[in-house]
Design goal:
By secondary structure, this protein is mainly α. Helix content is about 75%, strand content about 5%. The protein contains 15 helices and six strands. β3 and β4 form a beta hairpin. α9 runs antiparallel to α12.
Length: about 325
Amino acid sequence: MMIDFVPLWTLLLAAAVFFYVLLDGFDLGVGILYGLAPERNARDLIMNSIAPVWDGNETWLVFGGLGLLAAFPLAFAIILPAVYFPILIMLLALAFRGVAFEFRNRNKEHASFWDHAFCFGSLIATFAQGIILGAYIQGFKVDGRHFEGSAFDCFTWFSLFTGIALIFGYSLLGAGWLILKTEGDLQDAARRHGRWCFIAVIVAICIVSLWTPLNDLDIAQRWFSWPNVIYLSPIPLVTIAIAFFEWRALNNLSETGPFIGAIGLFLISYCGIIISLFPMIIPHHFTLWQAASAPETQTFLLVGTMFLLPVIFMYSGWSYWVFRGKVRADVGYH
């Protein structure tokens, strides 16, 4: 009798997506806020705060994409053509952002150009990811086992809104990171930016929480039918509690609280999406089990994954540990 590894692969991919959103999200958010830095020294501090870890954060994007292809190939075959253009835009923006990161200190004659490239690359990549998220939540046109719609179907009012919302969400994460890693005027500026981003994030959460069930009767039924409305009531209550904690942390002297609160808001929002869609991996069409690869394939891939994941966690954890503490433009960390 074959063991059902679909729940385990679901957990692995869900974790990979969340780690990517969290880790690459804060450094994309830092890149967005980078454009608001007033002068060169402040920009150096901001850049140094993510320099040791930013490229390693994208490991989770690679792991998630390859894991989806290997464990749920049907979902990969439908999702990829459905969001082809925002994925292409995201990858180009990430590549342009990486080039700007390296060239900023090596091509000082055009440092201002590379500064703007780093900021706009972060902004565009984030917006594209938000469009992908919105398009996924709304679902895709499917005929049999193939995507049937247009490559431009992903660009809807809802997906454009989630794109803008994610910009503020990542910026909130980035502000929390800068509060944690910097001092003085730059830290104060990060708190001010964080407060504005927090307000926008809370408004976005409220709008999406209403817009989604209004557009999808299945999601509305899941959240508001009896007794589900009682069972799921802790989700909005916890969201309110985290929002209250985040606002207080942004307005007092806490250095870790704003980042922890931003993570909490992303986590509770992520849980809300999972509750709305589970067990569908292609909304309205295919469940996780229907889209899964053969059990033998999942078993074979799981062996390698169990060796790979500890390595990823070890080098990622080591990087954050070595470069812990405050950052300075002249000497790095102390």
